[in-house]
């Protein structure tokens, strides 16, 4: 029995391809020793985020690089450093925050091409390995601490760094927390729980605490959901690695679209862009491509987003 009507199947289009000159064949000895050889495509892209000029920033985890892609699909290396940058988000004041698996929460100065640690640990204890991050309208920053957690070790965490500077853990005991986004009213935090192959729903109380956390969407196949983005109708876009696709669900969790990658199956991240924010940019991490698809989710009242 089908629970929902079948989603519309779409094929994404290639917007930009990492140039050959930026593709690498060797990683550090440290990553090799950790069982992480160089990826076949010479990169592993993540962390899509747009600046106010329409440039798209992406990270390259194994090679410690951050790129800027112009609206004309031109690539520029912003910084290369000793780290493993994953999620990236741009504050309304222009500051660029990076969730680095190796170094913690970092700040990127794109003009100078430098990056420096902001928060490397909490209560004198290091993070497991940061993954992704998301800003609330008031400047609070939510981020996931995934590390190597999974069903064998469900100890991943979600943190909130208040705009005033206070850092607190708002949820733990999560098997591999990954991408995260707030709904339009900012009273629900959605978290991609990769190794549980699900998107969890974290209701936020007025005091900022989480109440009655539960499963919002249960997926199957692939390695589980990764990065997410939300549109102005609370439609949730979810990247699904190894399925070679991104899904778009409405605010009820009903599937609206399946958008297939024209290249590799390792689709890890999504971001809305374009003048009307109805173009979904999809990161093909393993292939080194950025794809696009025009989507529109019919829904309820529209909210302004930060």
Question: How would you describe the overall organization of this protein?
Answer:
This protein is mostly beta strands. It has a single domain, classed as Neuraminidase. The chain is built from one helix and 27 strands. The strands form seven sheets. The protein has a five-stranded mixed β-sheet, with no helix packed on it. Strands 2-27-26-25 form a four-stranded antiparallel β-sheet, with no helix packed on it. The longest helix has 5 residues. It is globular.
Could you state the CATH homologous superfamily?
TolB, C-terminal domain
Rg calculated over all Cα atoms: 18 Å
Count every helix, treating DSSP H or I runs of 4 or more residues as helices: 1
Number of strands: 27
Overall pLDDT score: 94
> Roughly what fraction of the amino acids lie in strands?
over 45%
Main sheet properties:
5 strands, mixed
Number of domains: 1
CATH architecture descriptor text: 6 Propeller
What are the low-pLDDT stretches, counting only 5+ consecutive residues below 50?
Answer: 298-306
Q: What is the string of SSEs from the N terminus onward?
A: EEHEEEEEEEEEEEEEEEEEEEEEEEEE
Tell me the strand order in the biggest sheet: 1-24-23-22-21
- Dominant shape: globular
First-to-last CA distance: 40 Å
Q: What is the CATH class?
A: Mainly Beta
CATH topology: Neuraminidase
